[in-house]
C-alpha cells in the first residue's frame, strides 16, 4: 500500500498513517491515490472490467473527473492473472483493491475474506454471464475416442482447481455417474493445460472462456461437453476489498461507471471490441467474437441479477461439500449499494439484426440467428437460421473467417464448421457436441446425422 510523506513532527506522523490507511501518496503537492486492479486478460467475459476497460481508458477518464471534484490525483495499476485464485490471494494481502473473477472464485474470495476477519470483500457487479452455464466447457483432442464425459473415467483431465470451470466439471461428471476421484485431475493454469492437450499429455481440458474455443479454433481439439448441458447459471463479476471501498467509495463508483461504459461500448460495437481485445491479448479475434459478439456465449451486463445471485447461493453448499469453502454469509458478501450509488443501468445486450441477404428475410429469432464474418469486411452478415447460414456459406462471397450458429438445443453459439449437424425434414440443426446430436437423433428417429460438408451440400 502506498505511503504519504508530510512535514516532520507528530502531526506529520499522524497524517502519514491516515493517508497510508486510505491508500494515498504525495506527488507534486497533490495526494495520489493508487488503485490496484486485478484482472484476467484472456477471460473474455471479464473484459468489461479488465482488458477492454483498460484498452479504452474508461476508468482513468472517470478518475480524472473524480480528481477534479476532490483534488486527488489517481493512479491505476493493472495486474494481469490467468485465474481468480491469485487475485484473491493478493486481495487478502491488501495488494489488490478491485478484482474480477468467475462465480466459484468469487465465492471462495468472499469466504476467505470473511474468515480472515475485518471488513472482508464485496461482490459489487456482474461482468458477463450465461444462464445455462455455457461459459465452461470440456475439450478433447480431435482424435480422442471419448464421446461423452463418462469416457473420461480413469483419464488425465487438466483443470484449474477452484475455478468456475472446475466446478462445472465436477458437477457434470457426477451427473454422468463419474466421481471426481475416478479421473486423474491435473491442476494446471489454462495456458499450460491447452499446451498439454495439444501435446496429448492430458486426455481432456476443462476450462472457462476463451480457452475451449481457442483450442478448437486452432484445430487442436473438439468440444466434448458444453457447460450449457448442466443448466446452471455461470457468471463472472467484480469484487472489491471493502476496506478500500469504505475509504474510497467514489473510486469504486467511478470503476462501475467505467465498466458500464465499457459494457455499452461492447454491446453497441461488438466487432470493434473483439478486435481490441484480440490485439491486447493475442487471442484470435474470431474466438473473442464468438463470446462477445451479438447473441454470443456471454451476455454482458453490470446488474446483480436475482437469477445469478440465486445461483451463487445454490453453489455455496456444493463448494462446501467438496472442501473448497468453509462458510460464507452471502447477504454480507453481495453489496448492491455501490452499483446503485453509481447511478448506472444496463443497456440492451448485442443482438443479431438486419435482413438475411441469402434468404431475403428479417433476422428476428435469436435462437436461430447466425452470423458470417468475411475477410476484409467491416461488418458481419446475418443469417436468419442455420439453413440460411449453410446456403450463404455454400454460395461463397469471399474468404470466410468464421461462421457462427446457435446450438439447436442449448442455444450455445459455436463455429458452424465444428458443429455436429442433423437434418430433420427441410431443417438443418447444429449441435456443439456429438452427445447433443445423438440425444436429438434418439428423440427424432426420422432425422439423420450429417457432416458439415454434407450439410452444406444438402442445403
Automatic annotation (TrEMBL):
Residues 1-21 form the signal peptide. InterPro entries: SsuA/THI5. It comes from the Bacteria. The keyword Signal applies. Residues 134-272 form the SsuA/THI5-like domain. Keywords: Signal. Pfam families: NMT1 (PF09084). The keyword RNA-binding does not apply. PANTHER family: ABC TRANSPORTER SUBSTRATE-BINDING PROTEIN (PTHR30024:SF45), ALIPHATIC SULFONATES-BINDING PROTEIN-RELATED (PTHR30024). This is Putative ABC transporter substrate-binding protein. It comes from Kitasatospora setae (strain ATCC 33774 / DSM 43861 / JCM 3304 / KCC A-0304 / NBRC 14216 / KM-6054) (Streptomyces setae).
Amino acid at each position: 500500500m502506498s505511503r504519504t510523506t508530510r512535514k516532520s513532527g507528530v502531526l506529520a506522523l499522524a497524517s502519514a498513517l491516515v493517508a497510508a490507511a486510505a491508500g494515498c501518496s504525495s506527488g507534486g503537492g497533490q495526494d495520489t491515490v493508487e488503485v490496484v486492479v486485478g484482472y484476467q486478460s484472456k477471460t473474455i467475459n471479464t473484459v468489461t472490467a479488465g482488458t477492454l476497460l483498460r484498452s479504452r481508458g474508461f476508468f482513468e477518464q472517470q478518475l480524472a473527473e473524480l480528481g477534479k471534484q476532490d483534488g486527488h490525483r489517481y493512479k491505476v495499476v493493472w495486474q494481469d492473472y490467468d485465474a481468480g485464485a491469485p487475485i484473491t490471494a493478493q486481495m487478502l494481502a491488501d495488494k489488490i483493491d478491485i478484482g474480477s473473477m468467475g462465480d466459484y472464485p468469487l465465492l471462495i474470495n468472499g469466504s476467505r475474506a470473511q474468515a480472515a476477519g475485518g471488513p472482508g470483500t464485496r461482490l459489487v457487479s456482474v461482468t458477463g454471464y450465461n444462464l445455462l452455464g455455457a461459459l465452461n466447457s470440456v475439450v478433447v483432442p480431435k482424435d480422442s475416442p471419448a464421446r461423452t464425459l463418462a469416457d473420461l473415467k480413469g483419464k488425465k483431465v487438466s483443470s484449474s482447481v477452484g475455478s468456475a470451470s472446475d466446478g462445472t466439471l465436477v458437477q457434470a461428471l457426477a451427473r454422468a455417474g463419474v466421481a471426481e476421484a475416478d479421473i486423474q485431475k491435473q491442476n494446471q493454469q489454462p495456458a499450460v493445460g491447452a499446451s498439454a492437450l495439444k501435446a496429448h499429455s492430458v486426455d481432456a481440458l476443462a476450462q472457462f472462456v476463451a480457452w475451449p474455443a481457442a483450442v478448437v479454433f486452432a484445430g487442436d481439439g473438439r468440444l466434448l461437453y458444453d457447460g450449457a448441458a448442466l443448466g446452471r447459471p455461470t457468471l463472472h463479476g467484480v469484487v472489491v476489498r471493502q476496506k478500500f471501498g469504505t475509504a474510497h467509495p467514489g473510486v469504486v463508483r467511478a470503476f462501475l461507471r467505467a465498466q458500464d461504459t465499457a459494457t455499452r461500448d461492447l454491446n453497441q460495437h461488438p466487432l470493434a471490441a473483439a478486435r481490441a481485445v484480440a490485439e491486447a491479448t493475442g487471442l484470435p479475434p474470431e474466438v473473442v467474437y464468438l463470446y462477445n459478439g451479438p447473441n454470443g456465449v456471454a451476455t454482458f451486463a453490470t446488474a446483480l441479477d436475482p437469477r445469478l445471485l440465486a445461483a451463487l447461493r445454490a453453489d455455496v453448499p456444493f463448494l462446501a461439500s467438496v472442501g473448497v469453502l468453509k462458510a460464507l454469509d452471502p447477504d454480507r458478501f453481495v453489496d448492491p449499494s455501490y452499483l446503485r450509488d453509481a447511478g448506472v443501468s444496463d443497456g440492451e445486450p448485442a443482438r443479431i439484426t438486419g435482413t438475411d441477404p441469402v434468404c431475403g428475410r428479417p433476422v428476428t429469432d435469436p435462437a436461430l440467428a447466425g452470423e458470417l464474418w468475411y475477410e476484409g469486411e467491416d461488418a458481419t452478415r446475418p443469417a436468419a437460421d442455420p439453413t440460411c447460414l449453410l446456403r450463404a456459406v455454400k454460395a461463397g462471397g469471399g474468404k470466410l473467417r468464421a461462421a457462427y450458429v446457435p446450438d439447436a438445443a442449448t442455444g450455445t453459439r459455436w463455429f458452424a464448421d465444428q458443429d455436429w449437424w442433423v437434418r430433420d425434414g427441410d431443417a438443418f440443426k447444429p449441435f456443439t457436441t456429438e452427445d447433443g446430436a445423438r440425444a436429438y437423433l434418439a428423440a427424432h428417429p426420422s432425422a439423420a446425422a450429417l457432416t458439415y460438408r454434407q450439410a452444406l451440400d444438402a442445403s
